[in-house]
Design goal:
The protein has 529 residues and is α/β, with parallel strands linked by helices. The protein has helices at 16-23, 40-51, 54-67, 75-84, 106-124, 143-146, 174-184, 192-197, 205-217, 230-234, 237-246, 249-262, 304-313, 325-332, 342-348, 352-357, 376-385, 396-408, 415-435, 440-468, 470-483, 506-515; strands at 2-6, 89-96, 129-136, 148-151, 154-157, 223-226, 276-280, 283-286, 288-290, 293-296, 300-303, 318-320, 335-340, 364-367, 371-374, 523-527. The chain folds into two domains: 2-236 and 327-372 and 506-517, no CATH class; 389-488, no CATH class. The protein contains 22 helices and 16 strands.
Length: 529
């Protein structure tokens, strides 16, 4: 493999705020704990160690082991769970929704990033241990967002009418998706992908998704956490009650957001007056202010005290929203750093006031690596076209014009002809004006017709040249579409299995992990051969 780095600005796919959170976090120093760097971990280690109790560690490890009850632990995962019980162990975490079959590539890149960062931190800070964690956002209800994945020019969709937290869905409808997937890999019946498909089973989608992610990353000891857990939520009860009784998060986020916008930043998340949901199987309802009381649609209207007592009795029925979930995560984990997508990292800039209000350390923030993966076949086509890495982010029309200019030569160089035409036009204008000035308008009108005719001739010449190079121009479009589907980044559309058309993806995971540069801010271009 060959890995080339490109400044994100040169890709054209990142906003200025996203670029700053990669290259210049000092610009947003007022909105974070401290700018990300390797050295920043030294202070973060001390802060988190002082704030995180052994009691919470024990509660965390006990809950995670219960969540893994129906999964055989790999040696590496078991070792990491044992390490989490020790006071010198810390985490680096990323998280995501329960996407279908891992969804777009960046899902894999996120987890690979935390794996590599923990490895490198262990080499730097030898007195501490570092465990990669994946947080399953099982309580999200955005079924429409996660029900489909794109593979080999097909869209496969999990069809279900279930409502509420996606993690609590049963697996009704998944067999139809698996049957379609089996058809796509029918010519490779012994490949890894059939073992992959065997993971999709369990009492609900959260259990099945845990099995899948564990299957993919157990070699690296990734610890998977489901926040939809009564025991874990017990540790968050006091903060949820504070939110119900005092509504502390809304003014904190609003004040921070106002300062952020004045500073030139962007509002990414919308805080609510109550940043909690009520959840049951089939239901996820926002807590809504109703005078001095709280309305929970489908359940009724309750006093604040009643809801606070309800939280104490049944914390599993309450769920933090996007504004509160990061706080929940940081309360539970001995975490040092959160790894997220460029847009995802932006909304953390609005949240530090919430952390400060309850004295919870704010983590370091790092934008995950973005990768463009170039398979061997595509790389071969690029070599035929004479492309370099610098050509990748050019528009298709620019690449087409450059190819024709280079390969069609004088056949489409119309400038000498156009120069002669301009001389002729000037001569005609001067001659007629000298002989009969009243004909100037007529002459100019006729010359406009001449310009149109010359443009038509030039267009015909370009078309003739394009026909001669039709195969190469078609290849240009194919390569661009493969690397930038629908004009967007590959990692936001293409499914991981697209990179392993024979179904043997295990070497590919190792290659991706090896390609990650966890402390780099640049965009990575990875050439397979």
């Amino acid at each position: 493999m060959k890995v080339t780095t490109i400044h994100r600005k040169n890709t054209g796919y990142f906003s200025q705020q996203q670029l700053d959170m990669c290259y210049n976090q000092q610009h947003y120093a007022k909105f974070i704990a401290q700018p990300f760097s390797v050295a920043a971990f030294e202070q973060q280690l001390l802060v988190k160690k002082n704030a995180y109790s052994m009691e919470m560690r024990q509660q965390l490890v006990q809950a995670i082991k219960q969540q893994y009850a129906n999964i055989a632990l790999s040696d590496k995962v078991a070792h990491h769970l044992d390490l989490l019980a020790k006071e010198n162990t810390f985490t680096v975490v990323t998280g995501h929704q329960l996407v279908a079959m891992t969804g777009p590539l960046y899902f894999i890149y996120k987890i690979a990033h935390v794996v590599r960062m923990c490895t490198e931190l262990s080499q730097k800070y030898t007195d501490s241990q570092f465990v990669p964690v994946f947080w399953m956002a099982t309580e999200d209800h955005d079924y429409e967002e996660i029900k489909s994945f794109h593979l080999f020019n097909r869209t496969l969709t999990w069809e279900t009418t279930q409502k509420g937290p996606v993690g609590r869905f049963d697996l009704t409808g998944w067999q139809e998706v698996l049957d379609q997937l089996k058809e796509l890999f029918a010519s490779h019946p012994q490949s890894d992908v059939f073992a992959w498909m065997e993971q999709l089973k369990g009492d609900n989608y959260a259990a099945a998704f845990r099995r899948l992610v564990n299957f993919l990353f157990e070699k690296y000891g990734v610890v998977i956490i489901d926040g939809d857990d009564a025991q874990l939520k017990q540790a968050f009860v006091l903060i949820m009650q504070k939110e119900v009784l005092e509504q502390f998060a809304f003014p904190a986020i609003r004040a921070t957001t106002e300062r952020l916008v004045v500073h030139g930043g962007k509002q990414q998340v919308m805080p609510r007056e109550y940043n909690l949901f009520y959840i049951e199987n089939g239901m996820r309802e926002r807590l809504i202010p109703k005078g001095d009381a709280i309305e929970i649609p489908q359940k009724g209207i309750f006093s604040k005290q009643e809801v606070a007592e309800w939280i104490a009795r049944s914390p599993q029925n309450f769920s933090p929203n996007a504004s509160m979930r990061p706080l929940y995560q940081e309360v539970l984990l001995p975490n040092l750093c959160y790894i997220g997508g460029a847009g995802e990292i932006n909304y953390w800039l609005q949240l530090k006031g919430v952390f400060d209000a309850v004295d919870v350390p704010f983590p370091l923030l790092k934008t995950r690596n973005s990768l463009l993966w170039i398979d061997a076949a595509t790389q071969g086509k690029m070599e035929q076209l004479g492309w370099t890495t610098d050509d990748l982010f050019k528009e298709t029309h620019q690449l087409t014009a450059a190819y024709l200019e280079k390969n069609a030569g004088d056949a489409i160089d119309f400038s000498p002809i156009q120069a002669h035409v301009e001389v002729l036009k000037n001569t005609v204008i001067e001659t007629f004006h000298s002989a009969e000035p009243s004909m100037d308008s007529y002459v100019m009108a006729e010359l406009v017709k001449l310009d149109k005719q010359m443009k038509q001739l030039e267009d015909q010449l370009v078309k003739a040249s394009k026909r001669q190079h039709e195969k190469a121009l078609k290849t240009i479009k194919q390569v661009k579409e493969r690397l930038f589907p629908a004009g967007g980044l590959q990692e936001r559309t293409t499914n991981f299995l697209q990179l392993a058309p024979d179904g043997n993806f295990k070497p590919l995971i190792d290659a991706i992990v090896a390609s990650i540069q966890p402390f780099s801010d640049d965009f990575l271009v990875v050439e397979e051969k």
